[in-house]
Amino acid sequence: MTPQELRAFCLSFNAAVEDFPFNPETSVFKVLGKMFALTYLDGRPLTINLKCDPEDAVRLRGEYPGLIIPGYHMNKRHWNTVTADGDLPDHIVRELIEDSYDLVVAGLPRAERLRLDRP
Fold first, then answer.
1. In what order do the strands lie in the sheet containing 47-51?
2. Which residues form a coiled coil (predicted)?
């Protein structure tokens, strides 16, 4: 997955925006103000921090050693760092991004979730 594809996919979700709260190089993708992905798009290898269910996080780290690791500078129970331009298939990277987005949306107040469902 290229940095451009990664950015486009993250921004394809309903109400997703790109923000730069830490520095001009670190892209933070948010939905209604809540972060679901964090990446340095110029990094090599290209990695992305994604929210993950704690049980799934541990399982994925075991399934893809070295490609999915505990979240760098994040709560390691709830976040993984995923290598997006390596041996991990793009469809898995996309699934993990979508899962992260869905987890964040599920944690939003009901009124905000309902707002996302409106066209």
1. 16-19, 26-31, 34-40, 47-51, 79-83, 68-70
2. none
What is the CATH code of the structural domain delimited by 3-110?
Answer: 3.90.1150.30
What count of other Cβ atoms lies within 10 Å of the Cβ of residue 100? 28
- SS3 string, the chain, reads CCHHHHHHHHHCCCCEEEECCCCCCEEEEEECCEEEEEEECCCCCCEEEEECCHHHHHHHHHHCCCCEEECCCCCCCCEEEEECCCCCCHHHHHHHHHHHHHHHHHCCCHHHHHHHHCC
Q: For residue range 77-116, what is the model confidence (pLDDT) as tens digits?
A: 899 999 998 789 999 999 999 999 999 999 999 999 888 8
pTM of the model: 0.93
Mean pLDDT of 36-62: 95
The domain limits of the chain are 3-110
